[in-house]
Amino acid sequence: MLTNYIPLALMMMVAIGFGVIMANLSKWIGPRKPSREKLSVYESGMVPIGTTHERVSVKYYIVAMLFIIFDIEIVFLYPWAVTFDKIGAFALGEMFLFIGLLFIGYIYVVKKGALEWD
Length: 118
Prior knowledge:
This protein is mostly helical. The protein has helices at residues 6-29, 36-39, 58-75, 77-82, 84-112.
């Protein structure tokens, strides 16, 4: 019975081995000639100003997460639009409910001030 899993185990070993090899290939065979110029921070060819460890506002990340959330929700509209003629009026009501919930979420975000850049 365990012989049925041999191809799966072999495929997993090959996949893991391939990933490890590809991740380390440039480290193993690539040239290593570090210099001051190669190790310096590149900033449009200009000398870096300030530290690279500056704090970024949390609002930047919140806006990014909100964009991803609402963008992914829009992806759910595409299959519905493609099959709209086959699924009928019930699906239309369900989509209005879905869009209504998205709109409520959007209003909540606006009321909390997540989109304000003071």
